[in-house]
Structures are given as structure tokens and as C-alpha cells.
Design goal:
The complex is a heterodimer of chains A (336) and B (311). Chain A has 336 residues and is mainly alpha-helical. Chain A is built from 12 helices and no strands. Chain B starts with 5 loop residues before the first helix and ends in a 9-residue tail after the last helix. The chains are: A mainly alpha (336), B mainly alpha (311).
């Protein structure tokens, strides 16, 4: 077992804060570079809905004051960074008395459960398939059937999601269309509720697993082909070790390391894909909250959700990075 | 016993290697993928010569027509009309015209964004790998950190503020997140190439840094670059389609993602109008599968060890 050196942990923590800072800064500045004023846009949308808005000039002025939009941009930025780092994301514009952080807190567990479980399943299944594809002793039948699991690799998860809804919810009626649990069921720790959640989560999770596992399988196949040529593999086989022992402890054990790095690097993209899957399935997680914000022009909600996604993904990457030296003890000794 | 000359041993099948049909660039995956992508390009370029793409406008056609070959559509759909072979949707657009008008746009966004990302990646990756030092540390740190930011979520923030956006601006936005992948890949390759004999040789013979980068190293990196570029085009089309499917893409011209957005908003899945979302998705699946096959084919050129491994 490797040990974590202080330098390594400090470097990783630095990366975590840098990532969160870069992400939050991007979502602060780039919308402000674009022409158009969100407050004016909001008022014009109100007047489009209800004909006229009384005292719209005063309204715009007071809102601008309320959100501090008249202050110099650096002051706005510093206050924004301060509020973000203390997780005060302000009130939602469309669901007024609710605070963004409370809405996010309700949605976050659903996304964590769906995306976390789906990613884990896809990572495990994909790597096993990939390793078997490269392994010379894989039985012929399995070798012939395994590539079928890669069919949907290049398709975006949300498109497969639409297809799954059409086939299994609309056509065969095996699974519900949308949501995370049935209408009227109580959110609680009971078997019937858990069964309900699993039934609702199956299709969205499948959409993510089937479309992403091929990525892991292809990467793993490449790594296993390389590992298979190593001297220690030949020695292990020559010693007469059981093939499954050679496969798991000598082959997969070594080939999996770059895959774990790849997992950390692709979490951001996976979260983006899951956002749209949730929207397709009306799954009450971060993705659907984001869509809710887009539809209602709720800018504080959109910014808040995205901020949490950035922090969440960065945190997951940090955790993987901190576990990594335990998997590969060489890493902390390397001089970078 | 026949005699074997030294030359024959050293170059076992010289004839076969120099057969021009034996080029690794002619592998079936690469060709198949290329044909799929060409199909979409041709549909967009040649299609409008045979079909009136102004039918992609709202209210240009009758509503809710199923495709011509559907005989058993539910009674609440009008009977199919040969004038609209792939059917129409609930805003009166012809699906075939929609596909022709929209499909090339998706490819274009992907190409522009990935092209920009690649250009930045080549610049940063080469300079970081070659120069090293503090510049390398800076580039590596920022690339590693940007790559873990959920780019689609950030793009959603940006485009929900901007609202009106055209295809080119969308491609520019996407390029903001398209550079770390190529940068990392190129830097890693340059680091490994830098110590190779022929690069050392070039350096010793006084070749300029620029010449070493672009005349010595670049040709050896081409398959890697091409594979990474194809993957990047695909990732950017995915991001663009995702934004459009959330209703955040260009609204003045038809796009495949926007068609999916309207179909979801109009509950086309529950109404059984599979042709509304099915054909745009089929189109995108053709694009993605084509690009994927090209990327895998190029990967086999870059890593000869993968050749012949099944799957």
C-alpha cells in the first residue's frame, strides 16, 4: 500500500480549488460579455405575457440595485465569489421564496444516485468486457458475443433514452415514462418505495450505462493488449498459475490504472450527458432543475445548479485522485 | 533446400508491404465510417437539388402526416401523403426537408469547434512538451483543470444568457472547452518523441525548433491527431445537439437538436409520432457512428498492436 505524501495531497487540493475557481469565473464573466441585460430581458418577457408592466423603468432600476448590477464589475465578482464559496446562492427568480441552495439540496441526491450508480456499473462492465476482448483465453462464444455490447457506444445517452422510453414505456409498458418515483408515493426508506425508485431509475440508468460502457471497453482492450505482452504475464503463465488469477491479478490489476485516470478526466463530460438524460426522463435531479431554470429564465437557479455541478465533479475527481496512490503506489514517488 | 538471401530475411515481404492496397489507411472501419459521414454530407448538398427544402419552414406542409409506408397509423393521424415521404410534424414542417436543411449544420458546428480546439491544442501541446519548464507546468495544470469542468453545464449557463445565437457563435463557444483534450494528447506524444533518435539527430544537426516540431515530429503524430480530431468533432456535435435539445440552440434555422426539442415539448413520444424524433436521431446516429468508426480506424493506424484484435 502506498502512502499519501503531503506534497501530493496539497497539489491535488490545489487542482480542486483551481478547477472550481476557473469554472465559477467562466460562468460569471462570459454571460456578462454577451450583449443583453437579464433584468431587461425578464421584464420584457413579463410584458409579453401580460400586455404591459406598470412602472417597468422603476422595476428595472430596483432589480438592478437588488442584484447589485450597478456596482463595478470587480466588486460584483468578489461578492459573487464570496457568496459561492459560502454556498449562498440567493433566491430563485422564478420560485420566489425558495433559495437556490435548498432546491439544489433536494435535487442533488437523485443525480448523485443515478449518475453515480450508472457510472460505476458502466465502468465495471465496460472494463470487464474490454479485458475479455483482449484476453487470448476468452472462450470463442464470449468473444463472438461481447462486441454486441459495444453497439451503442457512439450514441449520446439522451438519444438512447428517447428510444428506450418509446420501446419500453410507450410500447411495452414495462417501465414508467418519467420521474423518479410514482405520483403520490411518499419519499421514505421502505421496500415499496425503493422498488418504485429502482423501477423508475432503470431506463435512465440503462441509457447511460449502455452508451458509455463501450468507451471503457475500448480503452481497456488497448491496455490489456499492451499488458499481455509484458514479461511478468508470460512468467505468471509459465509458473502455471490459474488463468483466472493471471487475468485478474496480473492483467486487469495493471491495465486498470490508466482507466481510473480516464474516469477522473471524463466525469465532467459524463455529468453533462446525465443532465440531458434527466431532462428527457423528467428525473427530479440537477439536470431537470437546470431545464426548469432555462424555461423560466431563472438565472440564479441556472448559475447555482451549474456551480454545484462544477463543485460536485471537482470533488469526485479529488476523491479519485486521493485514492489513486493506493492503487498505484509508484505515483507518489514520481517526481513531476 | 533453397537458398535464402540475407535481403529476403531482413525484408520478409517487401512486395506485399509496397502493394499500395496494403496501406493501413485502407482499413474497412475507416472506409465504412467515411461513407456514413459522406452520406450525410451528400444528403445536405445534393438533397436540395431534388427536394424543396423551404418545406422545412413552419406551416409549409399539412400537420402530423405519418411516413408514406405506415399503413396502420392510429385513426387520429391523417392518411400518409406521397408528397411528404417521411411525414410531417405538428408545426407543419416536412421531415425530409428538415433533415436536409439541418444535418450539414450539425457537422459544420462540430468541424469548426473541433478545428479550433485542435489548432489551440497543437500550439499549446507542442510548445508545452517541447519547451518544458514553467510554461509546461502552466499549460498542463490549466488543461487538467478545464477538462474536469462539466462543459455542457457551463455552456448551458452561457447560452441561456445569450439566447439568440447562430451556428458560428455556438461553435466558438464550444471551442472554449475543445482544446484541453488535444493539448494533453499532443503534449504526451511530444514528450515521448522528443527523446527519439531522429529528433535528437535533427537537434544535433542544428534544425530550428520550428522545423523539429513541424517537419520531424508532426508527420509521426498525424494518425494520433486525426483520431483525436474525429473524436472531438463527435463530442462537439454531441454538445451542440444537447444544447439544441434543451431549446438553447439557434432558433432561426432548423437544426437536428431543435427538432428533437420541439418533439419532446409536443410530447411526440407519447403521441406515437416516432418519425418526428426518430429521423433526426437516426441522422445523428449515422453521423456519430461514422465518426466513431473513423476514430477507431485511425487508432489502429496509430497503434499497430490493435490491428487484428477482434471487435
Amino acid at each position: 500500500m502506498g502512502s499519501l505524501t503531503v506534497g501530493y495531497v496539497v497539489r491535488r487540493l490545489g487542482m480542486f480549488f483551481l478547477t472550481v475557481w476557473l469554472g465559477t469565473t467562466l460562468i460569471f464573466f462570459i454571460p456578462r460579455l454577451a450583449p443583453g441585460d437579464p433584468v431587461a430581458a425578464m421584464v420584457s418577457r413579463m410584458s409579453a405575457q401580460s400586455g404591459t408592466v406598470a412602472n417597468s423603468a422603476e422595476m428595472i432600476a430596483s432589480w438592478r440595485k437588488r442584484f447589485g448590477l450597478d456596482e463595478p464589475i470587480m466588486v460584483q465578482y468578489l461578492r459573487y465569489i464570496y457568496n459561492a464559496s459560502t454556498f449562498q446562492l440567493g433566491p430563485s427568480l422564478a420560485h420566489f421564496p425558495s433559495n437556490v441552495q435548498d432546491m439544489v439540496a433536494r435535487a442533488f441526491p437523485w443525480t448523485l444516485g443515478l449518475l453515480g450508480l450508472a457510472t460505476l456499473m458502466s465502468f465495471i462492465a465496460g472494463n470487464v468486457v474490454g479485458a475479455l476482448l483482449a484476453w487470448r483465453r476468452t472462450p470463442g462464444l464470449a468473444r463472438a458475443l461481447l462486441p454486441a455490447t459495444l453497439t451503442f457506444t457512439s450514441i449520446p445517452p439522451f438519444m438512447l433514452g428517447i428510444l428506450l422510453i418509446y420501446l419500453f414505456a410507450f410500447g411495452l409498458k414495462w417501465f414508467p415514462f418519467s420521474g423518479a418515483y410514482g405520483m403520490g408515493s411518499q419519499v421514505q426508506w421502505s421496500w415499496s418505495f425503493i422498488k418504485d425508485v429502482i423501477q423508475h431509475g432503470t431506463l435512465p440508468a440503462l441509457a447511460i450505462v449502455i452508451t458509455t460502457m463501450g468507451f471503457w471497453a475500448l480503452g481497456m482492450r488497448g491496455m490489456m493488449v499492451t499488458t499481455d505482452g509484458e514479461d511478468y504475464m508470460i512468467l505468471a503463465q509459465a509458473k502455471g498459475l490459474h488463468p483466472s488469477r493471471v487475468f485478474w491479478l496480473y492483467g486487469v490489476r495493471n491495465a486498470i490504472l490508466p482507466q481510473v485516470t480516464a474516469l477522473a478526466l471524463s466525469l465532467g463530460a459524463l455529468a453533462g450527458g446525465a443532465v440531458i438524460v434527466e431532462y428527457i426522463f423528467t428525473y427530479p435531479g440537477m439536470g431537470y432543475l437546470l431545464y426548469d431554470g432555462i424555461v423560466n429564465g431563472d438565472y440564479t437557479l441556472i448559475q447555482g445548479v451549474v456551480y454545484f455541478l462544477i463543485v460536485g465533479v471537482a470533488l469526485a475527481v479529488l476523491i479519485i485522485d486521493l485514492i489513486y496512490p493506493l492503487l498505484d503506489p509508484r505515483i507518489t514517488y514520481q517526481k513531476k | 533446400m533453397s537458398t535464402v538471401t540475407i535481403e529476403q530475411l531482413a525484408v520478409p515481404d517487401k512486395a506485399a508491404r509496397w502493394n499500395r492496397w496494403d496501406s493501413p489507411w485502407l482499413n474497412p472501419k475507416l472506409i465504412g465510417g467515411f461513407l456514413l459521414v459522406m452520406f450525410v454530407v451528400l444528403l445536405g448538398v445534393v438533397g436540395p437539388l431534388f427536394w424543396d427544402i423551404t418545406l422545412a419552414r413552419v406551416a409549409s406542409s399539412p400537420l402530423n402526416l405519418p411516413p408514406v409506408w405506415v399503413k396502420d397509423a392510429p385513426v387520429f393521424f391523417p392518411p400518409p401523403d406521397p408528397a411528404h415521404p417521411l411525414g410531417t410534424e405538428s408545426n407543419g414542417r416536412d421531415i425530409l426537408a428538415l433533415l436536409m436543411a439541418a444535418a450539414p449544420g450539425s457537422l459544420r458546428v462540430g468541424l469548426i469547434a473541433a478545428g479550433l480546439g485542435m489548432a489551440i491544442g497543437i500550439l499549446l501541446g507542442f510548445s508545452a512538451g517541447f519547451l518544458g519548464g514553467w510554461w509546461d507546468a502552466l499549460v498542463r495544470t490549466i488543461a487538467d483543470s478545464v477538462i474536469t469542468i462539466p462543459s455542457l453545464a457551463v455552456l448551458i449557463v452561457i447560452s441561456s444568457f445569450v439566447r439568440q445565437i447562430d451556428l458560428n457563435n455556438m461553435a466558438l463557444l464550444l471551442a472554449l472547452f475543445a482544446w484541453p483534450g488535444p493539448t494533453r494528447l499532443i503534449r504526451a506524444q511530444v514528450l515521448s518523441l522528443r527523446e527519439r533518435g531522429y529528433v535528437q539527430m535533427a537537434r544535433l544537426s542544428g534544425a530550428s525548433t520550428f522545423d523539429i516540431m513541424f517537419k520531424e515530429m508532426m508527420p509521426n503524430l498525424l494518425p494520433y491527431l486525426a483520431a483525436s480530431f474525429t473524436g472531438n468533432v463527435s463530442a462537439n456535435i454531441l454538445a451542440a445537439t444537447g444544447l439544441e435539445a434543451l431549446g438553447l440552440g439557434p432558433t432561426r434555422i432548423p437544426t437536428l437538436g431543435m427538432t428533437i426539442f420541439y418533439s419532446i415539448r409536443a410530447a411526440a413520444i407519447l403521441r406515437g409520432m416516432w418519425w418526428w424524433w426518430g429521423f433526426p436521431i437516426l441522422m445523428l446516429v449515422i453521423i456519430f457512428s461514422g465518426l466513431f468508426l473513423i476514430a477507431v480506424g485511425l487508432d489502429e493506424i496509430a497503434n499497430p498492436r490493435l490491428r487484428g484484435v477482434q471487435a
